[in-house]
User: Fold these one by one.
Assistant:
Number 1:
Amino acid sequence: MGGNVIEVEGLTKVFGDFTAVDHISFSVAKGEIFGFLGANGAGKTTAMKMLCGLSRPTSGHATVAGYDINTEAEEVKRNIGYMSQKFSLYEDLTVYENIELFAGIYGMKRKDISRKAVTILKKLGFYSERKTLVKSLPLGWKQKLAFSVAIFHGPKVVFLDEPTGGVDPVARRQFWFMIYEAAERGITVFVTTHYMDEAEYCNRISIMVDGRIEALDTPAALKRKFGTDSMDSVFYQLARGAKRSE
Amino acid sequence: MALGFLLAKEFKQFIRTPIFIGLTLVFPAAIMLVIPWIVSMDIKNISVMVVDNDRSGASADFIGAIGASGYFIMEGLAADYDEALQHVELSETDAVIVIPDGFERDLLFEGGAPVQVSINAVNETRGTLGASYLGAVCAGFSADFFASHAFVAGNPSMQAAGPVPNIEVSVQNRYNPMMDYKWFMIPGLFVIILVMLCGFLPALNIVGEKEKGTIEQINITPVTKPVFILSKMIPYWIMGVGVLSVAMVLAYVIYGLAPQGSIWVIAAFSVIFVFSVSSFGLVVSNYSNTTQQAMFVMFFFILVFLLMSGLLTPIESMPEWTQVITYVNPLRYYIEMMRGVYLKGAAFGDLLPQFWALLAFAAALGAWAVASYKKQS
Amino acid sequence: MTMKQFFAFVRKEFRHVLRDKRTMLILLGMPVAQIILFGFAISTEIRNIDTALLVPDMGENVRKLSEKFDASDYFSIVTVISDEADIDGLFQRGDADLVIAFSPDFDENMYTSEGSSIRLIADATNTNAASAMTMYASNIIGDYVSGIAASSGMYGVSGVQPNIRMLYNPQMRSAYTFVPGVMGLIIILICAMMTSVSIVREKETGTMELLLVSPTKPIVVIMAKMVPYFVVSMVNYLTILALSVWLLHIPISGSFWALTLLSVIYIVLSLALGQLISTIAKTQVSAMLMSGFMLLVPVLFFSELLFPVDSMPLVFRWFSDLIPARWYVIGVKKIMIEGLPMFYAAREFIILSVMAAVILGVSLMRYKNRM
């Protein structure tokens, strides 16, 4: 595998006569935090859904954790975690029940689940809320919980689709601590975001415009290349030429 | 086991939805308490108005016979046909009988007399049955009349001679000794209850997860399609069996109706049947994008299935081409089984064709439910 | 509040309704399917009864009688058995619904004082069918006996002969009963269910709040929601009328405009009911269940679609008076089928108008209180 957890080659998705993702190619190394940037409608979420096995590519190849997403989608799923843009844990289950359900689906034993859940909930400061229905939690907590659930079963890669949308800067900072912690444990993090300050936290970022990857490098190298000292400006220079936007 | 965890989730969600609990308890009870009384299609109470132009002993006897028959409610006498017809138009009476002048004389000396009967036949069943009942009343009255007037002298037609065919007709009604129409409907109502609960609720389930977005979090996991579908189905299995048991107990307590045949035959068929209808609900759910859509599609099919099942109207009365269609309706087989076992004491061996048909439906619909669930778009 | 704003909302609602092609298809296809089902597929009449003959020994009269049975519309002979013990099996497997059992030596004993006998053994699980089929069978046997008597010229007595005339429905078609019922059912289904579910849907997704904070009176938002369903219902109403006139050949005997006026009142009433439900229900599922189980089931059973209200116990007859669909169906029958002038349906017009006013009032009051 050459140390690369994600390898993408010419991945394309066409809806009717609309090419959402247009021949993208890149690779992500193990333990890397890979930022996936782009304006709304640039094709970020579609690309991510293909890598997660939620959406079938029109053409192109990709491997995630060593498995082909075209032919081994279910094997891919065994090795990844995912947190969608819209909060999608069960609102009518409690905090603990959600953890237990998803860990159970991944084949963890009840005893292991309960031991690990207690540790994590205590660390998050959620332990006293373990029997609370998820619908009554504030959004920032829900997102932390969703992330914890996504990495609970120890996946090789975790995909985060705009994980910090709609929360305050403090909660966002806390959330990124969690991401770093996961990366330190060797989990590769693939994250899409709108926030340019968050882009700075990534090891490498790619910027998508109109379904194509227009730039891919470390934040520092990109800033150098575009002769500016802010990611905002890099992004603006690239996204300006976009034909589609929402 | 992933299935165990998924099942636990479904049950928790179910018991946290108060309307479902209410529905599973109240709906069967309401159906069992109310519907048997209102679907009794006996058309006993046809009201009649009589115009008596003869005013004789015979016409009075005839009017008496109509009133005493039990089929008709005598609304009284009218002066003439037009007056009586007005009462029909105002829906105050259903039928008008005009006894002609010379009724008694014709009966005595000609051996027969016509009466004019006009029935409001907007409801065609009512019209037909009213006519048949009246035919029976006339026949009964004539027999009695001739028996008591046979002595009348100089009545040429009364002097019967030669061999008369002597055939005695008797009627024997089996399986429903009290002739209670409710008994016929009750096994059918079980079917309505099961279809409404175990068909509708699964149809709203998966599409509900789609609308909320939670399905995505499931699709990202390596859970297999059959396991996920089973986790959606098993709760309705348990619910179906539970609701059916409650309904059967109610049928016994309220109407004194207990199955003549084996409960195990009912159980075996019911498990297969609930599997089929909930699979069908899940299929609809898988293809739908919104709850509203799933609901209407489901409602449409359930209505067609119910009407084409022989539950409310006899299949034999349908034209050939629609009779053929009923063979692809799983409800048909289940209803035949229910009525057979409950009322006629049919044994498993009598119901083999129905069993294989239902089993085939269960297999096909179950496979379809799994296949139509797409983890990947 | 201007009319322009109102129409802007109406346009938005139309777009919503029209975008969901599948639901639209069901909405417009439902009346067609129901008319075809009720018109051509199902019938409450008893016909083609599967009949078995129990014949110990075949003779001239047995043969002639069986032919008479088979020739009638009511019976079709499916099998002939000779053993009484086989009867239960026939019934239990559903192979036959009636067994006509001739006594042994039927022909020989027919003219003796002892006589022959025919037993009509019916599967009486369906008591109505059983009474009807034994009655039809007795009539056929009776006809046969008087036929023999008449042909031998010995017995000229015919008794009281009823001369029956079927008023309003001379061809005895069940369509006359169900067309008004289908109209009552479809309209309530589309108006009440669709409006309640679509209003609750906007509540669930939060777009309702968006609309309500806009500088528009809430009542306008709600009214605009009802317009598309009003139009769909009118389309359905006209579809049903067209189908019944040209497909089922049921003419509109009375005034088309009186019928339409009655239907408009009923549609408004149904829309108001849907609106009322939407103020009670919190989720789409509960709105659907409420309208499904509280409106649909009663309408199905109390609108004379299949079950005559007159033969129900008194309590249920009273209860049925509370159901708007019942009055609508009676009114439609009077005007459309019986061709009576509007005056005769005055009671139905008044009751429906009052019901509509009350429901509309209550739902608007609840709506205001909630805001």
Number 2:
Amino acid sequence: MIVGQQKPLDELWDMIKGHKSVLVFGCNTCVAVCQQGGNKEAEVLASLLRMKATQEGVTIDIINGGIERQCEHEFFESAQEQIQNVEAILSTACGIGVQFMAEKYPDKHLYPGLNTTFLGAVEKFGLYTERCQACGQCVLGITGGICPISRCAKRLMNGPCGGSTKGKCEINKDLDCAWQLIIDRLKTLNRMDDYEKVIPMKDWSTDRAGGPRKFVREDIQV
Amino acid sequence: MNVKTPSKLEKILRSGQLAVTSECGPPRGSNAEEIKHKAELIKNHVDAINITDNQTSVTRLCSLAACIHLKLMGLEPVLQMVTRDRNRIALQSDILGAASFNINNMLCLSGDHQSFGDCGPGQNVHDLDSMQLLQLVRMMRDEGKFAGGDAIKTPPKLFVGAAANPFADPFEIRVPRLAKKIAAGAEFIQTQCIYNLDKFEEWMKLVRERGLHEKVFILAGLTPMKSAGMARYMKNRVPGMDVPEELVKRLAGVPKEKQPEEGIKVCIESIQRLKELPGISGFHIMAIEWEEKVPEIVEASGLFPRPTV
């Protein structure tokens, strides 16, 4: 799931304060789970911004709305009218949704309501943690199902650094050492021999290093 | 004696004599005199001098340039290279640059995280990790090939080392991790500072059980303590460091002005004890900003004069 975090209200206000009309627009899938960018959060944020406008003595027409997903064309139908009637949109989707809207509505000013933080899991209500960096060449099969790329601060591929202490990372005592987790798993699975296999230099061309990525399925395109 | 490089360190190790290395940190400025001065202090008492690569992620004069200064003084540098700051293009390029100055030793490290240093908001690279860097240098040297597979006209002749920390967690993989570094190409090992000798000896026992001491030269790492405060700091604040409480107490038990002397004594006693330990090929004495004490330590430990090869 994509996790995001709302930007501070003052930063959002600075972005929108020069516009006459603004739609605060929610995305009700990923970022609704962490309760930062869903349609409900967009509604609350719109109220806060209206209060801010009143405090600042600025007249802006701030409305709110939202759809299920801002990263697919078919969901936008219900919101066309709202979108057309405003000058600017403050999208509380992840960076993907914001960009998708910017491409879709070339004459609208688009602003991000969130900082898109990571691809993560819901460990429990209110606790979201990173699990994947979408490197494009999954190594989980040889690392006991725990990702050293997203979960080791140095993305080390061959074991823990010298800073691993009592299962925690050298940069933060609250952070698990990914390699401790990997080794614990390999031990449980009786696969410690796997640890001694040297993982050679990684091909990062499937990662960000290879430029923007694309996946084409011609067989299902219409 | 079957040496693979022109390295003096390699010759001494392969001849079966105990090697002594030390290290110098480059200055936080462009004045080379500082590093030359440090090297002058220790040059007659060590076989090779490591130059750290932006240690603790604090920006400094680069390791390669400092190694060149040492080389121009007729000394034997060990180029430390971390994978934190450079991708494989830059690493290979620097390796060739080092080899072009006849720098014959290199230590492959991943490097401290940048959040410890002066560029916390900076990006880290880690295109490779330390094991993959070992593999890369060995491939460049032994196969004469770049990472991309192209032939290198004049391959670099570097004696290749790695670090080992017997004290970090999890302890059970500390020996497998050494085996892995050897498999990746490490020919010598410089260990983390040893204060817990019992634990180190336990690690070495496991190393010998697997015969790893016959596949790699292990140089025991030592850093003399300047004070009880330093011991306490290292015990509590430095990740991956194992400082026994008895050592802190021993240093704290003498008057403050006598603590440096006591720290040197502890260091010498440690070397004397470890000299007897089977599988130890030498010592790496890291007297941090205390280089002038290296000669005294080396002499008192019975490691002087240094061999000529």
